[in-house]
Amino acid sequence: MENMVGWEPPHVGWMKLNTDSASHGNPGPTMAGGVLQDSKGRWCDGFDVHIGRCSAPLAELWGVYYGLFVA
Length: 71
What we know:
Layout: E1 16-23, E2 28-37, E3 43-54, H1 56-70
Antiparallel strand pairs: 1-2, 2-3
């Protein structure tokens, strides 16, 4: 069975935050980034940040933290 995966816009009046993070090694140098889009898919804000050195799970948490800060 084939499932199509894609971005779905939020309801009118809402925004959607997508984040991603990566660690080169575990632990290792870490980056995070994200984008905030409105219900029409228009870019509203975004971020990219060099976090420093940490594990992959902690990198994901930092990505969510910075994303919520931007939102």
